[in-house]
Amino acid sequence: QVQLVESGGGLVRPGGSLRLSCAPSGSISSILTMGWYRQVPGKQRELVAAINWSSGRTSHADSVKGRFTISRDNAKNTVYLQMNTLKPEDTAVYYCNARQLLRADAWGQGTQVTVSS
Questions:
Q1: Helix (H) or strand (E) holding 6
Q2: What are phi and psi of 41, to 5 degrees?
Q3: Span 1-19, mean pLDDT?
Q4: Are 27 and 6 in contact (CB under 8 A)?
Q5: DSSP secondary-structure letter at 30?
Q6: Which CA distances in Å does 23 have to 27, 29, 59, 108?
Q7: What is the rounded CA–CA span in Å between residue 56 and residue 40?
């Protein structure tokens, strides 16, 4: 099984930037893709961005294209979500996710991102 440890998040003003980090441990070889989701109270968790673990190919939700970038540091086995030009509507709890071969998804503990003046 894979365990995920998230870091980053916090309070930022509109237009500001934050970077989230997610470091997987355990059965890393079983990871197919990693992604960042976000959730606000009363709404479903939505996919923000994802990266293919082997190819590095990325995808981003339309709502964050041009502002957020998912990336991976191969040496550190860490996935990042760089968030620029943040808006109040980006306020949510952000979760790191690992999709694994023949196993259930792994989730991080969640980190709060608040965009407010």
A1: strand 2-7
A2: -55, 135
A3: 95
A4: no
A5: G
A6: 12, 14, 19, 9
A7: 28
**pLDDT tens per residue, range 66-107:** 999 999 998 889 999 999 999 999 999 999 999 998 889 999
How high does pLDDT run on average in the chain? Answer: 95
Kindly state the tokens that stand for 61.
Answer: 């939700």
List Cβ<8 Å contacts ≥24 apart for 18-21.
18/83, 18/86, 18/113, 19/80, 19/81, 19/82, 19/83, 20/80, 20/81, 20/83, 20/94, 20/96, 20/111, 20/113, 21/78, 21/79, 21/80
Tell whether the model's pLDDT for residue 109 goes beyond 90. Answer: yes
Backbone angles phi, psi at 64, to 5 degrees: -120, 0
Question: Where do runs of H (alpha helix) occur along the chain?
Answer: none
Both structure tokens of 25: 């441990």
